[in-house]
Automatic annotation (TrEMBL):
Included stretch of the parent chain: 1 to 263 of 462
Superkingdom assignment: Archaea
Residue span(s) of domain Pyridoxamine kinase/Phosphomethylpyrimidine kinase: 16-260
Protein name: Phosphomethylpyrimidine kinase
Origin species: Acidilobus saccharovorans (strain DSM 16705 / JCM 18335 / VKM B-2471 / 345-15)
GO biological process, one term: thiamine biosynthetic process
Molecular-function GO terms, alphabetical: ATP binding; hydroxymethylpyrimidine kinase activity; phosphomethylpyrimidine kinase activity
Recorded GO CC terms: cytosol
Keyword tags: ATP-binding, Kinase, Nucleotide-binding, Transferase
Enzyme Commission number(s) of this protein: 2.7.1.49, 2.7.4.7
Keyword match Transcription regulation: no
Keyword presence, Transcription regulation: no
Length: 263
């Protein structure tokens, strides 16, 4: 817990000009959960509910400097990474974060629902080799888990195998393979941690307004870690937050409206 009595969380992520995903969603989530949110901006996206029309990356030095400057003053109780965009930013973030030991959630954001590529292909090996060994938790959706594990994921058994394979091969302390992209009447996420498996279930909510889903889940886990929760408890509490955020998502725009962590 923070030396100030107020937990401090950081998101290291991209700005969504449409306000639905990325650092915007993370900061809303932190605020809703009573955690002070700080931010290291990696990239600015020109984005709405259906497309990303521009990606403007920050310099790697600017990203590292934001982390260092906040840490030096306020301290950081837990952090997450979201959109890291390119290999130089991944390398700078990994190098900076190795200096500190606060819990780190890595959301290995690769492609947005609109199809935009938020992490270049040549950055994935740097993410795996340099950032994942520092991760307390990595939170891939099933396409990302397939990419990280080299396995095909069709159901729960595959998700369990992939979660273990990701932990064993990358050195991340835990992996949460999310089931939102798999069909079924429930959304089931699988956590592999300390040699054990946990499952987190919620009824599937029928809506197209799911922009920012992964961001809010990983931000909520980060907020609960900043408050001192143990990992499985943090994931359980965050699953409830994302379920309600989807239930009360906002019908805005021509595409996928944003989930609503303020609900
Ligand atoms: N834009 C930014 C800046 C993001 O960080 C993310 C996800 O992390 C997205 C967009 C993707 O949002 P979604 O795939 O939920 O539409």
């Amino acid at each position: 817990m923070s030396r100030w009595g107020i937990p401090v969380a950081m998101t290291i992520a991209g700005i969504d000009s449409g306000g639905g995903a990325g650092a915007n969603a993370d900061l809303k989530t932190f605020a809703a959960l009573g955690v002070h949110g700080t931010v290291a901006v990696t990239s600015v996206t020109a984005q709405n509910t259906y497309s990303v029309t521009g990606i403007y990356d920050m310099s790697p030095e600017a990203v590292a400097r934001q982390i260092e400057t906040v840490y030096e003053d306020m301290g950081i109780d837990a952090a997450k990474t979201g959109m890291l965009s390119n290999r130089d930013i991944v390398h700078a973030v990994a190098t900076e974060l190795k200096k500190y030991d606060f819990p780190l959630v890595v959301d290995p954001v690769m492609v947005a629902k609109s199809g935009a590529q938020l992490l270049r292909d040549d950055a994935i090996d740097v993410l795996v080799k340099e950032l994942l060994p520092r991760a307390t938790l990595v939170t891939p959706n099933s396409p990302e888990a397939e990419r990280l594990s080299g396995m095909t994921i069709r159901g729960l058994e595959d998700a369990r195998r992939a979660a273990k394979a990701i932990v064993d091969s990358t050195g991340a302390a835990a992996a949460l393979v999310k089931g939102g992209h798999l069909g079924g009447s429930e959304s089931v996420d699988v956590l592999y941690y300390n040699g054990s498996y946990w499952e987190f279930r919620a009824p599937r909510i029928n809506t197209e307004d799911t922009h920012g889903t992964g961001d809010v889940l990983s931000a909520a886990i980060t907020a609960f870690l900043a408050k001192g929760f143990q990992l499985p408890d943090a994931v359980r509490a965050a699953k409830d937050v994302i379920t309600e955020s989807i239930r009360y998502s906002l019908r805005l725009g021509k595409g996928h409206g944003p989930v609503n962590p303020s609900a």
